[in-house]
Amino acid sequence: MGFIEATEVCFSKYFNFSGRARRSEYWFFALFTLLTTSFFVYFEGYMGIFPNTDQAVLANIFSLLVIIPSIAVGVRRLHDTNHSGWWYLLIIIPIIGWIFILIWFCKNSDDGDNRFGSNPK
Known about the structure:
The chain is mostly helical. It has helices at about 5-10, 25-45, 55-80, 95-105.
């Protein structure tokens, strides 16, 4: 799955928390959000938009728009490693929770079908 295809799939499954997501789908969407947010921060600073604030307003608006699909693809990625989507709440626990989530997001897919659906490969 390529960069553009992964981005399209994540936006087409905006509120879809069921099913499974491949590693490439998750990581390409994460890269898309990082690059787009960075662009908005740079663009806003360069153009002098909202000069009286210390916040990147455009980047914050974009982040609010992609928070639901980001969580959805994260839950689907956990499903791909045969973990419940509720484990995504570990993200609330600093450092230790992040390490577990990162390991599961980097883990290869379960071979064959699991309780969340068929293998997306």
